Amino acid sequence: MPTSSLDTDEEKTAVQKFFFPDKKDLPDDFEMPIWDHLEELRERVLVAALASATAIGTCFCFSKDLVVFLEAPVANAGVRFLQLSPGEFFFTTLKTAGYAGILLSVPTVLYEIIAYVLPGLTKSERNFLAPIVFGSSILFYAGLLFSYEVLTPAALNFFVEYAEGAVESLWSIDQYFEFVLVLMLSTGLSFQVPVIQIMLGQLGIVSSTQMLSQWRYVIVGATIVAAVLTPSTDPFTQTLLALPLIGLYFGGATVVRLIENAREKALVAN
C-alpha cells in the first residue's frame, strides 16, 4: 500500500525535519537569488571585520590598563613580571588587545551572522534561535567571569604558595598572559555545554533521560576535558573547572527535561 504524504511527514525524524522542513514551516520571504546572497554575505563580513578591527584598535590604546587588570589575580602575591626578550611586552599587549577586541566585537559579529541566516530559517527555528544565542552569550561571559574571579586566582596562588620558601616568583610576562588568556577562553567555551545539550534535545537526538543516565561517564569526561582545557597540570585547577562543568551538564539536562514536559503538555492540549 503506498504511503501517504502525511504518514511520511510523521515518520520524519527531528534531524530530517531540520534539514528538510515542511513548506508550511518556511517563511514567505525566504527566496533570494544566489548573487544577492553573496552580496549580502560580503557586506555582513565587511561590517563584522570592521567592528573587530575597531574594537582591537581601541583595546590597544588601553592595552597597558588591560595588562594591569589581568595582573590583578596575583597583584598581592609578591609576583614580579619580567620582559625576557626585546619586544616581549609589546607583543604581549598586541595579543591582549586582540583577545579583548574580539570579545568586545562578539555581539556585533553574532548580530551579522543571525541577520544573514534568519531569512532562511523556519518559524520554529526563529523562535528557538533567540534563546539559544542569548543563553550562549550569557554562559560564555559567565565563564570568563568565573575564570577571572575564581579559577585563575586559585591556580596562580597555588603555584606561588607551592614555590614559597624555595624560589622567588619571577614570571615571564608573555607566558603569564598566555596562561591567563587560554584559561579564560577555554573556561568560557566549556560553559557552552548546556547550549549544546538543549540543541541536541530540540533536534530529538538525545533525551533528558539519556543524558541523566550517563552521569558516571559525564564525571569522567568532565575531568578529562578540564585536564585538556586548563594550561596548568595541577589537579587543583582541573578540579575547579570540572565541578562547574558537571553542574552545568546536569543543569542543561534539567532544562531539556522541562522543555520535553512543556512539549508533551502542548501536545495533550492540542
Secondary structure layout plus pairing:
Layout: H1 5-11, H2 14-19, H3 34-61, H4 63-71, E1 80-82, H5 88-117, H6 123-163, E2 170-172, H7 173-190, H8 193-202, H9 208-213, H10 215-229, H11 235-269
Parallel strand pairs: 1-2
Q: State the end-to-end distance.
A: 30 Å
Question: What is Rg?
Answer: 24 Å
Major sheet details: 2 strands, parallel
Number of strands: 2
Percent of residues in helices comes to over 70%
What general form does the structure show? Answer: flat
Strand order of the largest sheet: 1-2
Description:
The chain has 270 residues and is an all-alpha fold. Helix content is 76%, strand content 2%. The protein has a two-stranded parallel sheet. The radius of gyration is 24 Å and the shape is flat. The model is unreliable at 1-10 (pLDDT under 50).
Search tags:
two-stranded parallel sheet, 270 residues, disordered N terminus, 76% helix, mainly alpha
Question: Can you summarize this structure?
Answer:
With 270 residues, the chain is an all-alpha fold. It has eleven helices and two strands. Mean pLDDT is 81; it is low at 1-10.
